[in-house]
Amino acid sequence: MTDTSLEMTARSAPAALSGGGARVGDYIALLKPRVMSLVVFTGFAGLIVAPGSLHPVLAAVAVLCIAVGAGAAGAVNMWYDRDIDAVMQRTRARPIPAGRVPAAEALAFGVVLGLFAVMLMGLAVNWTAAALLALAEGFYVLVYTVWLKRRTPHNIVIGGAAGAFPPMIGWAAATGTVSLESVVLFLIVFMWTPPHFWALALYREGDYAKAGVPMLPVVAGKAATRRQILIYTLLLFPLALTPAFIGLAGPAYGAAAAVLGGLFVLSALRVRRDHGDGAARRMFGFSILYLFALFALLIVDRAPGFAAGLAG
Questions:
Q1: Are the C-beta atoms of 110 and 79 separated by less than 8 Å?
Q2: What is the mean pLDDT of residues 166-190?
Q3: Residue-range domain boundaries for the chain
Q4: What's the pLDDT score for residue 276?
Q5: Hey, how many other C-beta atoms are within 10 angstroms of the C-beta on 98?
């Protein structure tokens, strides 16, 4: 499908006909709350595991800014992708293609929230964290959404950096710096992103093909995608153990991360062998649990009294 036909489809969708009837829930949906929840959690983990301390009110402000910034980027993404969203089954019920929110309002909503989040982070917390938040927003909108998504099957590999910034932002909010430890947290999310999204793309390949989005299964085929999922999962395994080797986490984290990593690799092997959609669907679901559990372990490991409790 050409860009012109996509635009015609988008214009014929209800989104182009009416923006009336928008509810609060529609504007919340623009923020991609399910995606935002994992982003916010990894950002919160980065803040908690960082050395030093931050006043609870400022910590709450920092987490709020990460959430609002991520949601704002999601809203601008929905505005830009409204044409392809209108033709994809997974996304056609979103507020813009469904006609509940006018495209111009969605763009303004995202831009204002994005600027607000960066300014609040800078004024209330520190400007290092604010600069990283601005970089994450800009990377997601300009690099991933505008430049990469419709042009290359490497869109997720490179564009995934946007979703990897939150733990680094949380770390910077607590310390005012970027360190090796925060870079490791960034790299864990960065390396996790391709197998996570490629698992989704495997069983949504038809949707992406119809919309003309060059996801890896569309361009290189499902066999190549399954192979790349396994490669990235194997590379992620030792990387996820790194916090235990650089003093960011203890041996309990290392042991649990090894078990989780082994299960993730096992999921990738099942996807490699299974030519149906079932294994890919299960891996996509497990990938979310995997990242959540990994960062939850980091939080627990750094919680006051955790090490003392193990020693006792």
A1: yes
A2: 97
A3: 19-178, 180-304
A4: 83
A5: 18
Task: Give the C-alpha separation, 167 to 172, whole Å.
Answer: 9
CATH class for the region spanning 19-178? mainly alpha
Q: pLDDT, tens digit, for every residue of 64-121?
A: 999 999 999 999 999 999 999 999 988 899 999 999 999 999 999 999 999 999 999 9
Which two structure tokens, joined as six digits, stand for 29? 């949906």
Candidates 227, 222, 254; CA nearest to 238 is 254
3-state secondary structure 112-136: HHHHHHHHHHHHHCCHHHHHHHHHH
pLDDT tens-place string over residues 126-172 = 999 999 999 999 999 999 999 999 999 999 999 889 999 999 999 99
Q: 22: which DSSP letter?
A: -
Enumerate the H helices of the chain as residue ranges.
Answer: 3-12, 14-17, 24-30, 33-49, 56-80, 82-85, 103-124, 127-138, 155-159, 161-175, 180-203, 205-211, 216-220, 222-245, 251-273, 278-302, 306-311
